[in-house]
Amino acid sequence: MFFNVYSFSLIFSILFLIIIIVEIKKGNLLEKYSLFWIFFSIVMIVISANLRFLNLLSRALHIYYAPSVLFLLGLLFIISYCFHLTLIISKQTESIVKLTQEVAILKNMVEKSSRDIEGGKDN
């Protein structure tokens, strides 16, 4: 087997897919967050294995070095995933603020109730 950027990309994509599956089975990676990575690795496997498609895609995009398309696709996937994670973090930040406010209100109510009960004992 001739080792070049195509075979390296194919091997890396297959190993990456295996790692994702292993981490899901271990419980380290939730399924809903792993779907993007599974999709990404399958797309990279298909593109890396199909050199004609890669060459066709590179000509359509006016990219003269076909393996650069692999890196471009990888970069675009990673940027879109970073945006997805930013959306998740934004939603979680809002939830944390609401939960913190609710906990503070409940803590205040518990302290007030404790004071009222202790005040009632003195009478």
Provide tags for this entry.
transmembrane; DUF2304; mainly alpha; DUF2304 domain-containing protein; transmembrane helix; membrane; 123 residues; single chain; 87% helix; 4 helices; elongated
Task: Describe the 3D structure.
The protein contains four helices and no strands. It is mainly alpha-helical and 123 residues long. The protein has one domain (5-122). This is DUF2304 domain-containing protein.
Kindly give the count of domains: 1
Instruction: Give the SSE string.
Output: HHHH
Q: What percentage of the residues does DSSP assign to strands (E)? A: under 5%
What value does the average pLDDT take? 87
Instruction: Estimate the helix proportion, in percent.
Output: over 70%
Briefly note the structural class of the backbone. Answer: mainly alpha
Note the topology.
Layout: H1 5-26, H2 31-49, H3 51-60, H4 67-122
